[in-house]
Amino acid sequence: MRLVIMGPPGAGKGTQALVVAGVLGIPHISTGDIFRANVSAGTPLGEEAQRYMSAGEYVPDSVTNAMVRDRLSHDDCRPGFMLDGYPRTLEQVTELDMMLQSDGVHLSHVVELTVDKDEVTQRLLKRAQDQGRVDDTAEVIRRRLEVYVEQTAPLVAVYREQGLLVQVDGMGSVDEVTARILAAVDA
Prior knowledge:
- The protein is of the alpha/beta class.
- 59% of the residues lie in helices and 12% in strands.
- The model has no long low-confidence stretch (mean pLDDT 92).
C-alpha cells in the first residue's frame, strides 16, 4: 500500500503516520526525517538543503524531490510506504506521480485528516507551552492553519479528481483515528 497523509498542523499526521505504517508493515517516510538524515550524513543533497535551512529559506522542490526519489528507491519501500509531509506543492504532486510511474506503481490512497480548527489551535497552544515554543501564539497558529488551507487546497482537489482522496475525521483518541484511517484505506 502506497499512502500519503495530509492534514493541518496539529492534526496528528506524524502520530498517525507512524502508527498506521507500523500496522501495515510499511515504512513511515517523513520529509523532516529525510532532511535530517541527509544533513547528518553529509550527503551532497543534505549539504545543499542545509544551506537553505541555515538561511531560513524553504528547501527547493528540486532538492526535496531528489531526496524523496532516493528514499523511495530503497528496498523497504517496494511493498509500500506512508509519505508524511510530501507532497506539499502541485509540482511535487506531479513529480511523485512521475517517480511512481517510472517504477510501474501508483498511490493507493491520500488520507486527509480533517479536524476542528479551534480544537487544533488549542492542541498546538498546549504543545507550544509544553515545549517552550514562545513564538507559537494563537495568532501565529491561526495563520499557519490558513496557509495550510491555501497551499493544500489545490492538492486536495487534484487527489479528489484522481479518486485517491479519503477524508478521515482526525478528532478523537489516537486509536479511534487509527481505526478510521485503516477502515478508509481498506475500503
